[in-house]
Amino acid sequence: MLTASLIAKKRDGNELSDDEIQFLIDGFCKGTVADYQMSAFAMAVCLRGMSQAETASLTQVMWRSGQSAQRQSDVPRVDKHSTGGLGDKISIVLAPLLATCDVHVPMISGRGLGLTGGTLDKLESIPGFRTNFDLDDAERLLTATRCYIISAGPDIAPADRRLYALRDVTGTVESVPLITASILSKKLSASLDALVMDVKVGSGAFMKTKTQAETLARSLIDVGRAAGLPTQALLTDMDQPLGEAIGNAIEINEAVEVLQGGGPNDVAELTIELSAMALVAVRDSTSLDEARALLRQKLASGEAFQAFETMVAAQGGWWTGPLSLAQEFDIFPKQSGFVQEIDCRAIGEAIVALGGGRQRAGDAIDHSVGIRLFASVGGAVDTNTPIMRVYATSERRSEYVDRLVQAIRVSSSPTSTRPLVLARVE
Amino acid sequence: MLTASLIAKKRDGNELSDDEIQFLIDGFCKGTVADYQMSAFAMAVCLRGMSQAETASLTQVMWRSGQSAQRQSDVPRVDKHSTGGLGDKISIVLAPLLATCDVHVPMISGRGLGLTGGTLDKLESIPGFRTNFDLDDAERLLTATRCYIISAGPDIAPADRRLYALRDVTGTVESVPLITASILSKKLSASLDALVMDVKVGSGAFMKTKTQAETLARSLIDVGRAAGLPTQALLTDMDQPLGEAIGNAIEINEAVEVLQGGGPNDVAELTIELSAMALVAVRDSTSLDEARALLRQKLASGEAFQAFETMVAAQGGWWTGPLSLAQEFDIFPKQSGFVQEIDCRAIGEAIVALGGGRQRAGDAIDHSVGIRLFASVGGAVDTNTPIMRVYATSERRSEYVDRLVQAIRVSSSPTSTRPLVLARVE
Fold first, then answer.
1. For this structure, is A81 an active site residue?
2. Cβ A172–B6 below 8 Å, yes or no?
3. Known catalytic residue: B334?
4. What is the pLDDT of residue A110?
5. A7–chain B nearest CA distance, Å
6. A226-273 pLDDT, tens digit each
7. Is the CB of residue A225 less than 8 Å from the CB of residue A139?
8. Is A367 an annotated catalytic residue?
9. What is the spatial distance between Cα B331 and Cα A83, in angstroms, rounded to a whole number?
10. Which of A135, A298, A356, B94 has its C-alpha lying 20 to 30 A from A161's C-alpha?
11. Prediction pTM value
12. B218 touches chain A (CB under 8 A)
């Protein structure tokens, strides 16, 4: 097979065979297909798409470029994955919460790049917390603690790691088949029995419209199932941040509030919903309502928080109470009224600019930077009450005050609140 | 500017500004835009296209990545370029022929890759012939001989050289804007006053349909004129080879026959037509008919052949009569009748397989390999008269006999001959 001919075949909109996709990905891993060939191929896929069969084949070849977890017990293994949104700390609550319900949660997670934070970066706000375990060591963690949240090491889908790095710098991130293969190749490596996807929709998400999000959800479900992994999805709103806290340490603190039975209602409710879907997927005899009730009780009783402490300790960290944040500074709205719209992009950019996120892969992060948002769409605000609290070093934060005030559009006309869950795709 | 964002802009079908195109090409030359970024960009251009303004900008930036010839006199400078076809030896006749008509012909030409041979490879069949001159030395040649045919050295459009090498291995050759910029960036470096394009159409050409060929011709004319280079084009048939000779040394021999007033009629007539267009473009007072008559006389008188001998000598070669070819072997048709169709691709592949062309850039070429074709579409053939003569080493040529016989489809029904010139685009 000739690499240039296979690229041209996709460029012309034709379907590649399993063997042809394997030839490209294996060659990419071995170095016989060059980076400049793979990036041209990725662009052709962005513009020409892939059939479900091609996407399934790509996913499986990328998964098999690495190892899979060797399960040590029959305990059902579940996981949740989000396509990423501002303030999304669900994973940090969900993994220990589900661990209290007789399932294992082997979670392979990612770092933040661009506007939305990464679960691993948030967890590393906790002193001593480690995320680099190989799959064998992680399996031992799981036996002891029932959940882990680790990074994808070199043993997990290395083809995805290389391809993602290339896509990031060649304008080829935005592609449903490539996103599907990237997410599922890693999730399949964890040898799961069920996966729940949280596909975010809106200005603060990768998928701007419900139609786009549905297409991605459908692709993840179909390809997951074709690879033997039962997958379901919720489409959830990302036209405003999730919860109040946005940043790294500040999101851990909020996650802990939820784990202790408190915290913002949207974070708790979405965590319960996604967790209930995962539980029911591996327990035929439990209804969604029963699962929700059980999960609520695990949060209220403190068991979920205990499981979090166990997980943190097993991964080398120590939890001694809320993490300290940078110096705080309140921002007030310019007018009283109702919040019409929140510009997630502007808030995300401010966090990155203040040092709380990455412009480039490998950039250092200041975990103490963050924002607490006291406003949500449809809510009332007045000029005497702070609309947000910025945690940042004093020299830099004032630069962003104007932009942050403008990120919350206020007017005198009342407007309705936004529903969080937009659709369920099964 | 962020390279990935510019690539994404083109991926989404938006128009890039002059500055953005310059940023990409300058960065590519300097190494700050990586090969894998440029190949993804090239694929986005293949699938999204470019406006005329973008193509003009790309052409000019690629041209200015190198030097331009510093003209030493006011003598008008003309050139002809073909998009490539089987048996196309027009340049070898045209350059010395026009040199006899008080114009300069500074021709920067290419090598063969794939099915169609390259003018430089054909010329290198002549003992001692050199093609690597820098633009200053080439200008001195021109003063002495009025024409040259040289390769694009490192001083000529280096951005094109790098981009072409990348496109060749990433399935991104087939793109009207990229082809336009590649051809014209080199032609502009020769500081021409007029350019005539021979855009080939058919199974043996890059452009399979007249519509595609017209699009390319239009693009070349518009972008050439935008850069100050008056450009015109003929669309000519490439559903059968041009002339009888196909190969390297064998095509030089045929070109010399034409330069001496003989040779196949199609080669002579197309050379005269393209040359006349070039002449009239720089001489307002001459009509096309007058130009044709003058050119015919230059061929008949031996002046054109003398100019060829002068050019060969100036470029280090010596012409001592027809070049010797490999051992010959006649092929007969399986049935008598009329030629319906000639498979240019099959003939081109046979030449490459017999060692007369390149599979890969840098492959050595056996200049003595070739084919003389005694058939043309609409012509009568019979089983007692050879339909072609193969020149190749005896061990290999017999493998290709069956394929070559099948390349000429013969049936008993008469069919019309094919017109050579399909359209004139101005």
1. yes
2. no
3. no
4. 79
5. 5
6. 999 999 999 999 999 999 999 999 999 999 999 999 999 999 999 999
7. no
8. no
9. 65
10. A356
11. 0.90
12. no
